[in-house]
Each structure stands twice: as structure tokens, then as C-alpha cells.
Amino acid sequence: MRCAKNLILMALVALTGVLPFASSSQAMSGQRRLKQSRSFSVLDVDHAWFLSPSDTSKFQLEIYYQIHQAGLKFEPDSGRFQAAYELKATVFDKKNKVVARKQIPKTLNVSAERHTRSRQDFRTSQLDFSLPPGRYWVEVILTDLNAGKEFTKSFEAHLKPLKHSRAALSGLEFVHAVQATRGEGSAFLKGGYDVVPSVVRTYGGSDSSSLLYYQEIYQGNPSVEQVLLETRLRHWTKGMVYRDTLYVHFDNPVKRQLRRISLEEFPAGSYQIEVYLR
Question: Taking a C-beta distance cutoff of 8 angstroms, is the pair 12, 203 a contact?
């Protein structure tokens, strides 16, 4: 079997500092390295891709975003404080033509002024787009309606067609938390669970000693009974620090995996995760 490869960039925080991670994915056009120390950002964006659950000829491009309320302008409102913003995500094809767009207006209310300045308070959500294979450019714009300011993040998503004659990997979603789903209306629903993304790909420290990520493996050909999954972690200067292999047996065409890797023994620094399907 030919080797399917999935690499993606992520970040890890340790007790002694920040550990940025990288990973590779067939949906990503390259590797993005997170800085050792991050400046404050009002808007953070990440993404991953999976086969569309309703149409396997298309992909579901998931855009994860995090809005830090300390960067928004709050106005007094009946004893509380209110921010108003609009989030717009636009997908362009390789000819710079708009192929999809979603626009969401929101208000955010807090009870105390101190919450308007807290850098620990943020809102996380996601937008989903159903797209055919192709190379896309995605632009996400956050507009602070009270301040009249815009914050923009953009990225390229290369959705390569999958060959259904063999097994294949999805993209990787870096995960902050998992819980039993609250219902069909949840933005984070995956296989009966709410999978909340870690938008800034930051792990480690006293409250996050494990790397958690979600991926899907597609059987492709019904004659494929099992595949070998290999996972590696590489430190940007020390080389490979972790490796494991796992046989995955197919009992249905899509195998969902939520994987956890302990980070307690890793030093602070930048890392890359590599996933291979053999």
C-alpha cells in the first residue's frame, strides 16, 4: 500500500514555556510554525477538512475561530456591558471567484467591566463549508461594530481528491475538549460527541498535559480490512521524540479516532506531528 501522509502545525505549552507543534495534512499547502511567544490577537483561526457526511464526492472544510473579548469595544447597556461584532468567512477559488460565504452577526454581554479586559475570556466556534476538491483561499474578517475596526485572517486550503481504491487520511483537528453532545444543533458535533477545537494549537502546562486531536480514516476500497497508522512527534531542533504504530481495523467505511498523547516528558519548544497511513 502506498503511504498516505498527514502533517499539520500545532503548539504545545509546557510548565517551563511554550511548545509549538507542527503537523502535516493533505488539505494544507505547507507547514506553519507557531512562535515561541504569541502576541495578543483579537481573532485566531484554524481549519481542518473531512469527507462530507452527506456527499462523499465533496469535502467538509471546517473553519475554527476564537474571538478574544479583551480586543472588542464594550458599551454600557442597562447595568451590563455589550460588544457587537460580525464574523464573515469567504471562500475563493483559484480564479479568485467567490464560491461560498457565511456571515454571522453577534452580540456579547458581560456583567462586570473587568470581563471586558480579561485576556483569559474568549469565544470559540466553527463554520462548515461543503466544497468539491480544489485549491481555495479563505478569508475570515471580524468586524467590531462598536469600534468600527476589522481584524482579518486568511489561509489556503488545498482539498486534494481522494483515490477510493485505497485507504486515506482526513485532516487533523486539534482538540481542546470533548464532551457528550448537547444535541444536533451543536457546531462541534462529531459522532455523538462535541469536539471543541484548540484553535491556537497550544497544549501543556498544569491544565493540559496531553495532546488531543481528532482524525478520520477512510477505507476507500471495501477489500481493505486494516491499515497501519504511524504517528511521530518531532522537536524542531532535537528531532523525533515520540513514535507509535497502531493497526486500524475497518468495521465501517469511516473510522473516527480521538487520540491522546501525554506531553509530561517533553521539553518546551516547537514540535511537528506527522501521521502516516501504510
Answer: yes
Distance CA 272, CA 278 (A): 19
The lowest-confidence range among 2-11, 135-144, 236-245, 266-275 is 2-11
Lookup: cell for 17: 514555556
CB-CB neighbours of 86 under 10 Å: 14
The pTM (predicted TM-score) of the whole model is: 0.86
Instruction: Extract the C-alpha cell encoding 41.
Output: 490577537
As a dihedral over the C-alpha atoms of residue 109, residue 124, residue 203, residue 184, rounded to 10 degrees, the angle is: 130
| All cell numbers assigned to 126 | 466553527
Phi-psi region of 110 (alpha: psi -120 to 50; beta: other; left: phi over 0): beta
Structural domain including 43 reads 4-277
Percent of the chain with pLDDT over 70: 84
Q: What does the pLDDT read at residue 224?
A: 92
**Residue 60 and residue 46: Cα distance in Å, rounded?**
14
Can you give the CATH number for the domain in which 80 is found? 2.60.40.10
Domain count within the chain: 1
